[in-house]
Amino acid sequence: MSSDLIIKHFTNPRFVGRLENPEMEIEVIGQACGDRLLVQVQSNDGMVSDVAFQVWGTAASMAAADIFCESIKGKVFSEISDRDDGEIEAMLGELEPSEHHCIDKLIELHRFLIAEAERQGVM
User: Fold this and answer.
1) Which of 9, 33, 45, 88 has its CB 3.0 to 4.6 Å from that of 63, i.e. a possible disulfide?
2) Where is the NIF system FeS cluster assembly NifU N-terminal domain (predicted)?
3) HSE on the CB side for 97, CA within 13 Å?
4) pLDDT tens across 61-76, in order?
């Protein structure tokens, strides 16, 4: 059974949707599961000012995307870039074996977000 954290973010996602004019779009497709995550970001003065996501896949992937968005909104890119893989994995709490694929997707989202922020010069 999924953890309370996963259930909370799946049943009541705060960041699901689309931004009108996103500055960044990061898309990840899970190698193991085929789930597709799309995260859109707006920034202001080197900080994530707004974020939204869409998921085509499992409940755990939706929850993971919501947790990721919650973790970056209001944060400066330099702070986000300092996170290591262990910190990103810890954001998801305890996972069922069938949900572990979400860790790889979040790590990939994180790396793509930082690369895009560097490419756009907002860091």
Assistant:
1) 9
2) 3-103
3) 0
4) 999 999 999 999 999 9
d(CA 111, CA 117): 10
CA angle centred on 62, ends 60 and 68, rounded to 5°: 100
Residue 42, beta-bridge partner list: 50
Please choose, from the candidates 43, 55, 103, 104, the residue with its C-alpha nearest in 3D space to the C-alpha of residue 79. Answer: 43
Q: Is 6 helix (H, G, I), strand (E, B) or coil?
A: helix
**What is the separation, in whole angstroms, between the first and last Cα of the chain?**
39
Nearest-angstrom CA–CA distance, 62 and 33:
13
pTM for the whole structure? 0.92
Report how far residue 5's alpha carbon sits from residue 59's, in angstroms, rounded to the nearest whole number.
12
Distance between CA 113 and CA 91 in Å, rounded?
A: 17
- The CATH class given to the 4-120 domain equals alpha beta
